What we know:
The protein is an alpha/beta fold. The chain has helices at 7-19, 24-41, 56-70, 89-100, 111-119, 141-151, 189-192, 195-199, 212-218, 261-272, 287-291, 314-323, 338-349, 358-367, 376-379, 391-397, 408-422, 459-473, 481-503, 510-529, and strands at 2-4, 47-52, 74-79, 104-107, 123-127, 154-158, 180-184, 202-206, 223-225, 249-253, 277-283, 299-302, 327-330, 354-356, 385-387, 427-431, 437-439, 444-446.
Amino acid sequence: MQPVLNVEDVKRVESGLTEVGVSISELMHRAGTAAANEVMRTDDVSSVTVFCGLGNNGGDGWVAAESLRKRDIDVTVVTPVAPDDIQGDLARVVAKSAQSAGVKMLVAPPKGRVEELLLSTDVVVDAMLGTGFHGDPRAPFDIWIECINASGATVIAVDVPSGLSAQTGLASSRCVIADMTVTMLVLKPGLLADMGRDACGTIVVAPLAEQTERLVLEADPVAWRADLEDYVDVLAPPSNAVDKFTRGSVLVVGGSLRFPGAPLLAAQAAARSGAGYVTLAVPEPVAPILQSQMPEIPVMGLPSDPDGTFSAEAADIVAELALKRTATLVGPGMRVSGGTVGVVSKLISSEVPLVIDADGLNCLARLTSNKLDDFPELLRRNEPLILTPHRRELGRLVGQQEVPPASLTAAMEAARRIVWTDGGSEITVVAKGSATACVSVDAAVLPKPGPAALATAGSGDVLGGVVAAFLARSNVGNDDLPVLSALACEVHGYAGSIAAERFGSHGVMARDIIDALGLAEDALEEQIAFPESTDMD
Ligand SMILES: NC(=O)C1=CN([C@@H]2O[C@H](COP(=O)(O)OP(=O)(O)OC[C@H]3O[C@@H](n4cnc5c(N)ncnc54)[C@H](O)[C@@H]3O)[C@@H](O)[C@H]2O)[C@@H](O)CC1
Ligand SMILES: Nc1ncnc2c1ncn2[C@@H]1O[C@H](COP(=O)(O)OP(=O)(O)O)[C@@H](O)[C@H]1O
Ligand SMILES: [K+]
């Protein structure tokens, strides 16, 4: 797994490196050289334009320019001020050095001149704004960003694409869209989430010093990006000596007359994710509707209120059923009512491996008056509990219902409040979004995100079914629940990619993701076993 550090903690690595004799100036030289090395790896590069800002990110750019000049590349720096007028000492020194080495420059050029230069540029190096950037890019950077994005040149961003927050992954309207980002020392969360996914292109981490790895670990990574090899051994090895029950049995509890389809999607997804026996428990009037849809999945009708949701009597029956299954998923389409809150509450207090999704989470929010983190006794259990909220559901659980977490880091913080309420490793929160974090008390694991085609109604129900099936099939201890959940997310995401190939990136429906789940898991397992053989990107 690759560590991810909050931007403020990167400074701790920087000062640790200074203590072992690697100065900031030396780091800047190594950073600029690392960026230049990536430029040199680009095919057929002869002319490069480096856009430099006024801080240390700009300093990296000047170093890169000088390094490229020495390798006979035709390089021009575009800068708001001449080297002598740069305020920061480090950046001024390297800028003057590049100037003395014969690097060409354009100081505060008009827009038309920048556009003209870009016409003959093969590679742009974006060294305008790095981790010191806040707010919206001001002139002239806003204009230069526009020119770069319109240029068609290959763009290599230094540390972070200008305009993107390396911490939050949020960007204003002006943000460099790079083909590659050479990020210094360590991954930062904003590169992996939200707009970061569109802006960074391929991410290359330049460690810059041999002590970096140790110092990064000491700086307490906020998350870990999973690699495929991390998933080895998470699921039980295949065996022919199984029957439908030993392959893992899943109970899906949910549905209402208003939303009968959601639990069916989840149950189908569980069946397509390798659970040998999947059962649905739904309110009585919903049962005949579903039974006709899916002959493989037995449907049980449980006591219902007149509005077609579970009644109070359903709770004990559900708990008894759950005790006989390897894992239970509760929530899809069940609505929030006295009866459904009772069902969720009963399941939580039963020692059964449990996944709570969708309205199951909203019931939990109701039960705890939007302060789940104030109810440690509720969450204290031995068997696994996996919550799969999207950001609005997550917000409702921790009192942020008006303003849900807006970034991956904010979502991880909210998820941490929940898992720390209990403090045990049996709870994992899968904080879903365009990038997802699987958070436990020990770690936050970031699966490789799937395509935007996953953002379609019912897709979350499908994920719930996959997570429940993997929980039923797994042989891991509670400590590995974040990795197990991350694998479920990757299979879901990969199934989304297969479905997008089949139906077009705008044409995917939740059912298409379900149909691709089995193939997605096979493909991923092949990748895990033979990592070099195929390229998943
Ligand atoms: N942390 C480290 O160990 C290393 C950092 N290095 C570089 O240093 C960078 C951070 O340097 P700095 O802290 O100087 O920050 P930056 O260079 O990212 O940005 C600071 C500059 O941008 C300006 N700025 C901020 N917001 C702006 C806005 N909205 N519009 C226009 N201008 C704006 C500031 O006035 C300042 O001049 C990193 O991104 C990386 O590229 C590297 O030199 C090597 C190692
Ligand atoms: N832009 C995106 N890129 C990748 N995955 C996404 C994106 N948007 C949503 N997803 C994924 O799709 C699923 C949507 O779940 P959810 O919001 O619960 O949907 P629903 O409630 O409609 O079932 C989650 O797994 C989420 O991580
Ligand atoms: K940059």
